[in-house]
Amino acid sequence: MSETSARDPRDRLRPVLSLQDAVFLVVASVVGSGIFLTPGPIADRLPHVGLIFAVWIAGGLLSLAGALANAELGAMYPHAGGDYVFLREAFHPVAGFAVGWLTFFAIFAGTVATLAVGFADGVAGWLGLGESAALGLAVATIAASSALNYVSVRWGARANNATGWVKVGALLAFGLLAPLSGAGDAAHLQPLVRGAGEAFSAGAFALALSPVLFSYLGWNASVYVASEIRDPGRNLPRSLFLGLAVCTGIYLVMNAAYLYALPVAELRETSNAGEAAAGALFGGLGGRLVAGFVLASILGTLNATVLVGPRIAYAMALDGLFFRGLDGVHARFGTPTGAVVLQGAVSVALVVFLRSFPSVLDFTTFAIVLATTADTLALFALRRRQPDRPRPYRAWGYPVVPAVYVVANVAIALGLGLGRPREALTGLFVLAAGLPCYALFARSAAR
Questions:
Q1: Helix axis angle, 93-102 to 421-446, nearest 10°
Q2: Which DSSP string do the residues of 191-235 spell out, in sequence order?
Q3: 394 secondary structure, DSSP code
Q4: Is the pTM higher than 0.85?
Q5: Is 32 strand, coil or helix?
């Protein structure tokens, strides 16, 4: 089966994205606010230098295990929609719909809303704006990014490429210049091993993985736009692995810089590690510059998320399992305009209900764990049900690596369920709410 024939014949999105576009879609999706805002809560849950590095490495390895499975699935099915398609083909349309529903509403729309609120609050703090003005700015930010991705996927990709190069360069420069400042202390990075066993707690480690996995959210961004990537059999797996490698390297460098600048006891009390570390290393100007970079980084991640998310609604609508009209592609712009508008509207509605960053973070992470676990189970099912289907890429380490990924994600989900029951139950409620909607859409499509 050729890659052209492997495309959904109903899909009218154009394959205009290069390997660089796909890699930086992953980078722009992953590197946002997480690396600046989550190190404090992570250090609070794991107040040991070695365990802090261990949980970031564990998050990267878990994401890689998921990427290996998604690389095979995405190369097999170079369609729009990502996990919706994988679950539909592996199990049943209702499984694909349930995960697609959860991914669209809880992960992508929820992330867009969270990022918009974070960006607006930061700008409002700088300018001394009130709560109403911050709310208006969050809504305007979502509208502006949606408009950009409404009129052109290429312009959206170019914005991601630009922000991706800026992020990589600026963050690596920060990490490499930190020890040259002489204002930190290498002793903060000790001990790496001694005392780790006594400080380790499985429950605390699982809770610390929540903000870590939130910070890695977006590692699978390119699978949702697979039909728009040129030569997806080769470029889609490469985009996942290259993008994730860049992000993991950046995260480890940044954590080393933070711990060089701040002792663990101080880091665990910090709400914005990037700003606090820059202030300690380079003075007040450094802190202000990093604060500005955080806002720019959040904006870049928001744009990447706005680009990716609508492809889920578009793919479900192609099968008649979502609202009518969302399967449309603009004749001139070549974008799924109806799906873009819907995601923007849902994200604006969610902005009104957002209250605290940690609460939304754990809710989104729980949904991610459910969705990516389902993806990996789909890999096992398709290996058994469709052994002869062409696979341009085969997941390395199968079946051991994906099995470890499933077991680890189940443990994380249980840890989140016990430690954050309200957020976990909210995710399950969103998932369950999709089932009666599926029945209505399926009945309508059968007529």
A1: 130
A2: -SSTTHHHH--HHHHHHHHHHHHHHHTTTTGGGGBGGGBSSHHHH
A3: -
A4: yes
A5: coil
Which amino acid is it at 353?
A: F
CB atoms under 10 Å from CB of 1, counted, come to 9
CA of 102: how far to CAs of 201, 320, 393, 415, 417, in Å? 30, 17, 27, 20, 17
Residue 359 CA to residue 379 CA, distance in Å, equals 31
H/E stretch holding 277: helix 273-308
Separation of alpha carbons 272 and 269, rounded Å: 9
Q: What is the pLDDT of residues 74-128, one digit of tens each?
A: 999 999 999 999 999 999 999 999 999 999 988 898 889 888 988 898 899 888 8
Q: What is the mean pLDDT of the chain?
A: 89
Cα→Cα distances 167→254, 267, 297, Å: 12, 22, 7
399 upstream amide cis, omega within 30 of 0? yes
Burial (CB < 10 A; 0-12, 13-18, 19+), residue 10, is: exposed
Cross-strand pairs, 17: 229
CATH 3.90.70.10 fits 15-446, yes or no: no
**Paired tokens of 211:** 């903000």
Q: How far apart are CA 211 and CA 209, in angstroms?
A: 6
Nearest partner of 340 among 327, 353, 331, judged by Cα: 327
Domain ranges of the chain: 15-446
Task: For residues 205-217, give the mean pLDDT.
Answer: 84
337-377 pLDDT, tens digit per residue, is 999 999 999 999 888 776 554 456 667 778 888 888 999 99
pLDDT at 361: 62
DSSP conformational letter for 187: G
**Which H/E stretch holds residue 334?**
none
Residues 6 or more apart in contact with residue 116 via CB below 8 angstroms: 138, 139, 141, 142, 302, 347, 351
d(CA 86, CA 89): 5
φ, ψ of residue 193 to 5 degrees: the values are -120, -45
φ, ψ for residue 298, nearest 5 deg? -60, -40
